């Protein structure tokens, strides 16, 4: 049921304040006078000790689910102190990469039925790792066969392009980082700030959804382009990859997400006055580096669209020709949840303007159950 919306993708983008609320329901505790703010993930509580003691956490997924894990990686590293590595499911299987008994392998899958992810899971299980699932689908293969896990509870996602599952996956993995981080005194203030940020997140997403019209205008400007680059780094490297994935899969436009730190190592050669480039430069510890990326792209006459925190338009914009997307600022590790929304809206509007099928892009299936 699409309700008042024309497409499932549109509905699922706009219902993110609600889906995020459901994801967090009953799992965040902002205790009374003597109780600290904590996280309770029922599916993991008996396994947290083992996860904390593991030598490594390996995230495994495909497509958008992989990108969600990438967005959560920095906060998991920060709060757990455990090294976190990333594996695209098919690549782990192709390489038969090393997985050990001392590893915790976390399988991220909206459907819980993706063939590549399931094969990687079987491989990790054979190698003795603790296997954790993060899925939207109760009763799916991942949910049933992993040792433990967390349901993201985002509600059924029907549009082939994953939107609300992405943001809920990031929130679950941020909660996972908080749960593994436990009660270390050194990071208590940080953990509490993140928990406050999580409580507030649905409101911030509601606010960023108001950019809908602005993103439609931007889509009109970009709809005839051949290509679109998205530069991000740190917490928002994943946002760059995921924004570009949305644009290519539904709007059928070539788009690449790039790590801004790699710009000078090749991609800079592409820059000219025609190729549109989105630079994500919201406030975090990478901000000044992104400011200098913007300056360098501008010096080469790059056609820039900059995403920045509210109030920062003047400090990021190198000149009149630059378009700015201002988004609400949230706790740095939660910023990817806010920042992806305008890019989801952009991909949606590009697709509708071009007259393509938004909910079922050509050649794609919702659940990829073959290799
Ligand atoms: C569970 C109930 C929820 C109830 C809540 C009350 C289910 C599905 N969830 O939620 O309805 O309101 O208790 O306390 O009945 N699991 C895996 N692999 C996965 C995902 C989950 O093994 O990929 C396991 C978990 O380890 C857990 C169970 O499935 O044992 C349910 O997980 P989850 O729904 O996340 O747990 P709760 O949030 O506690
Ligand atoms: C992108 C998309 C795909 C899926 C990928 C993994 O919008 O939908 O990239 O994310 O096929 O699917 P799940 O998460 O079901 O394992």
TrEMBL record:
Domain annotation SIS: ranges: 47-186, 218-361
Reaction(s) this enzyme catalyzes, per UniProt: D-fructose 6-phosphate + L-glutamine = D-glucosamine 6-phosphate + L-glutamate
EC number(s) on file: 2.6.1.16
Keywords: Aminotransferase, Glutamine amidotransferase, Repeat, Transferase
Presence of keyword Transferase: yes
Top-level class of the enzyme under EC nomenclature: transferase
Protein name: glutamine--fructose-6-phosphate transaminase (isomerizing)
Upper classification of the organism: Eukaryota, Viridiplantae, Streptophyta, Embryophyta, Tracheophyta
Part of the whole protein covered: 332 to 702 of 702
């Amino acid at each position: 049921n699409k309700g008042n919306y024309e497409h499932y993708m549109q509905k699922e983008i706009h219902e993110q304040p609600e889906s995020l609320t459901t994801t967090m329901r009953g799992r965040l505790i902002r205790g009374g006078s003597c109780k600290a703010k904590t996280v309770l993930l029922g599916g993991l509580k008996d396994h947290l000790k083992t996860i904390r003691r593991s030598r490594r956490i390996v995230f495994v997924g495909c497509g958008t689910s992989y990108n969600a894990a990438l967005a959560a990686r920095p906060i998991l590293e920060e709060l757990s102190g455990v090294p976190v590595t990333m594996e695209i499911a098919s690549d782990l299987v192709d390489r038969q990469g090393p997985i050990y008994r001392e590893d915790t392998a976390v399988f991220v899958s909206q459907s819980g039925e993706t063939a590549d992810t399931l094969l990687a899971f079987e491989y990790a299980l054979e190698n003795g790792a603790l296997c954790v699932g993060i899925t939207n689908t109760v009763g799916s293969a991942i949910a049933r066969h992993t040792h433990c896990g967390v349901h993201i509870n985002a509600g059924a996602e029907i549009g082939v392009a994953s939107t609300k599952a992405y943001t809920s996956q990031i929130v679950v993995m941020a909660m996972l980082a908080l749960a593994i981080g436990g009660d270390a005194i050194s990071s208590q203030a940080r953990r509490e700030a993140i928990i406050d940020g999580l409580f507030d997140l649905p409101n911030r997403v509601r606010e960023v959804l108001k950019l809908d019209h602005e993103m439609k205008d931007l889509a009109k400007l970009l709809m005839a382009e051949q290509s679109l680059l998205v530069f991000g780094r740190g917490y928002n490297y994943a946002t760059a990859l995921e924004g570009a994935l949305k644009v290519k899969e539904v709007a059928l436009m070539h788009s690449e997400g790039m790590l801004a730190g790699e710009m000078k190592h090749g991609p800079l050669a592409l820059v000219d006055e025609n190729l549109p480039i989105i630079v994500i430069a919201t406030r975090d510890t990478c901000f000044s580096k992104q400011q200098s990326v913007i300056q360098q792209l501008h010096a080469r006459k790059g056609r820039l669209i900059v995403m920045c925190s509210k109030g920062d338009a003047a400090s990021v914009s190198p000149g009149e020709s630059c378009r700015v997307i201002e988004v609400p600022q949230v706790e740095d590790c939660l910023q990817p949840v806010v920042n992806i929304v305008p890019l989801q809206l952009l991909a949606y509007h590009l697709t509708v303007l071009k007259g393509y099928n938004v909910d079922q892009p050509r050649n794609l299936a919702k659940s990829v159950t073959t290799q």
